[in-house]
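Hallway conversation turned thread

IA: we were arguing at lunch whether anyone had actually written out 2-dehydropantoate 2-reductase end to end. Turns out nobody had. So, for the record, here is the sequence (313 residues) and right after it the structure tokens. Reply here if something looks off.
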Amino acid sequence: MTIAILGAGAMGQLFGARLAAAGNTVTMIDVDADTVAALNTSGITVTTPMSSFTVPVLAAQAQDLTDSVDLVLVFTKGSHTSDALDSIRHVVDERTVGLTLQNGVGNERAIINLLGEDRTLMGMTSFPADRKSLTEIGTVDSGAVILGDAALTESPSELAEQTATLLHSAGLQARSHPDVRVPIWEKLIFNAVMNTIGGATGLTVGDVGRLPETQQWAEEIIRESLTVAGALDIAISEQRIRATLTMAYREHADHLTSMTEDVLQGRDTEVETIGGAILSVAEAHGLPSPVLRMLCDVIRLRTLASKNRRSIG
């Protein structure tokens, strides 16, 4: 299968390497010329606590692509999704399928606009990925991918099943889900806790789980978010969310979330597709979410301040 990975960051490279190692023709697409050159020269190296492998891949900037692809797998930040998909319109055709495994919700709308609802899949992954260099990714052997139809059909379509099989055969532990909103929103609420508190405070994951102040915020975010999910009639498991948070506090204690890193570096964050997305639904249903709103506002202001300091410097 010919696959385009849109966004050659840590998660994009992890999936690109696994899919290429399984025999698929993979092209990594990124706006950064240095990343593209490094990938073409060195391939992608994936390291886990138990193993390491390197696989060659093709890499290009979008304007340099010529051949159409079977699958577009989107791993850009949510704020870049529409522009990134616009840049590859010339390599999609009537058979191309799009899949987003990005953080947050709403990313599938840009794929639907490009390919149509019947060729758009969405989902989530619990695999971690840390970028150790331009072409080296650290991860672990455990994780999963859960995906489904953007059309929210009563049962997974043949397309969803085939795509899950493709990813599973690449060692990505994938399966389809009849209501993919459930795993997406459970990860969304997890990220709303970890990323908004981390991004607002600069604290590590372990500190977020340890300090009484941040744990109080976490409890309020969970409560507010579950109320919002209930308004959408999504059968969220609070127990699964809490179990994932507990595991993260324990196993990734020294880690800074991606949103925290983005704030510190003055980069655009995913606040609008994570906390901001929950707030949008809350507003539409007249539901108060004061703690989540406050933390999202702090992230926006911290990001603005970081950008201003960098422009002055």
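OS: looked through it. The chain is about 50% helix and 15% strand.
IA: good, adding that to the notes. The chain has a mean pLDDT of 94.
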